Amino acid sequence: MERKTSTSELPRISTEDLASWVFNGPQYDREKPVSIGFTFADDLSSGFCELVANDDDAQILIDPANPSRSVPFNQARKLVGKLATGFKRAGLKVGDCVLVNSGNDIYYPVLLLGVIAAGGVFAGTNPGYKHRELTHHIKISKAKFLISGPEPLSESLAAADATGLSRDRTWVFDTWEEDFVAPKDVRSWKTLFEVDESSGDWY
After folding, report:
1. 3-state SS of the chain: helix, strand, coil percent to 5?
2. Which pTM does this prediction carry?
C-alpha cells in the first residue's frame, strides 16, 4: 500500500524570493506537490475579514469590464460556505484536489475559497491547454474533481475520460449571467450551491 506523504515531509516554499526559488535551479521535484511555509489561508482570511468587517455590503469582487457586475462581501461569504458544503456532499475529503480549468471571472475567487473551506486542495490550469496537457496535470495533482469553464469544456472532458474522472465529479463553471447549455451528462457548478440553510447542514 502506498504511504501517503504528510505535509511536514513536503518541500517548503520560500517566503522571501518566490520567483528565484521557482525558476533558478529549483531544489525540488517539479513532479510532486510542495507545502507553503506559512499559514496563508488563515492570514489572508483573517486580514481580509478585518478589512471589511464593518461593511458587509462592500463590493469585493468587481468585473472591470462591467463594474455593475459585482459581488458584495456578505454574498461572497455565503457562497463560499454553501460551495464548501456542496463539495463535501459530493464526496470531497480533506486533502482531495479539485482541478479548475477555466479563464478568470469574478466568481473564480469564490470557487477557490470554496475548495479551501471544504478542506480541499485547489489546482488551477491554463484554459488553453489541450487534453493531453490536462491529462498530465490531473495525474500529477491526483485530482479527484474537475471544474471546467465553458470554452475548454471539450478538452477538459477528454482529459477526465482519459484519467477515469467520472461525470459525477465533473462540473462546468458557467456563471449566473451566462446562457450556456452544458452537455446532458455534465452538471453546472451552480448545483453545488443547492444547500438548505435552514437545516443547519452547511458550512
Report:
1. 40, 15, 45
2. 0.72
